[in-house]
Design goal:
Rossmann fold; 2 domains; 5-stranded parallel sheet; 9 helices; kinase; ATP-binding; Depp_CoAkinase
């Protein structure tokens, strides 16, 4: 039976986590691409072995786990190393996402990904929802939450697709500019729409 899958995205500090938590509270299975990206490089996973074989034993710490900091510094210095890393991790991430979405036991499933459009993960979905917020608000929320300095946050935002591009690509947009209750009020009618889409696909 075909499953209706919604792609949920938004920039840093936009509130996509708050949105995905609300959908989960409605009984909807959420697959988080960031969590999957961490899972596929855990100890014992094929992707971690491939990373070690390509880069060398220095990518592992004393426990045999991925030394994220060392690898992050390496790919920052050598841009071609990032491409090599992504050629290992992206197929593994995509495979795991598809497996988890197919196993979802809810009326529809959600794929949450900050890079939904950039990594073509939107191709795994039938519809996309952008949680949007002004850049000023994004910076404020991210600095309060992660205790990162504003320059770091601006760098992350610059590396992501612009708000305007995401707005053009998304099927649905929710502006998360106020209270959590206001966000939830906007999500409820969309959730009801998605339940109907799911029924149409399955009928």
């Amino acid at each position: 039976m075909q499953q209706f899958t919604l792609g949920l995205t938004g920039g840093i500090g936009s509130g996509k986590s708050a949105a995905s938590q609300w959908f989960e509270s409605q009984g909807i299975v959420v697959v988080d691409a960031d969590i999957v990206a961490r899972e596929v490089v855990e100890k014992g996973q094929a992707a971690l072995l491939a990373i070690e074989q390509y880069f060398g034993a220095w990518v592992l710490n004393s426990e045999g786990e991925l030394n994220r900091r060392a690898l992050r510094e390496h790919i920052f210095k050598y841009p071609e190393a990032r491409k090599a890393l992504e050629s290992i991790t992206h197929p593994a991430i995509r495979h795991s996402i598809i497996e988890q979405l197919n196993a979802a036991q809810s009326p529809y499933a959600i794929l949450v990904s900050p890079l939904l459009f950039e990594t073509n993960q939107h191709q795994l979905t039938q519809r996309t929802l952008l949680i949007d917020a002004s850049e000023q608000l994004q910076i404020q929320r991210a600095s309060e939450r992660d205790l990162q300095n504003i320059e770091q946050i601006k760098q992350i935002m610059a590396a992501q697709m612009s708000r305007q591009q995401k707005q053009q690509l998304a099927d649905d947009i929710v502006l998360n500019d106020g209270l959590l209750s206001h966000l939830h009020d906007q999500l409820l009618p969309l959730h009801q729409d998605y339940l109907q889409f799911a029924q149409q696909i399955q009928s």
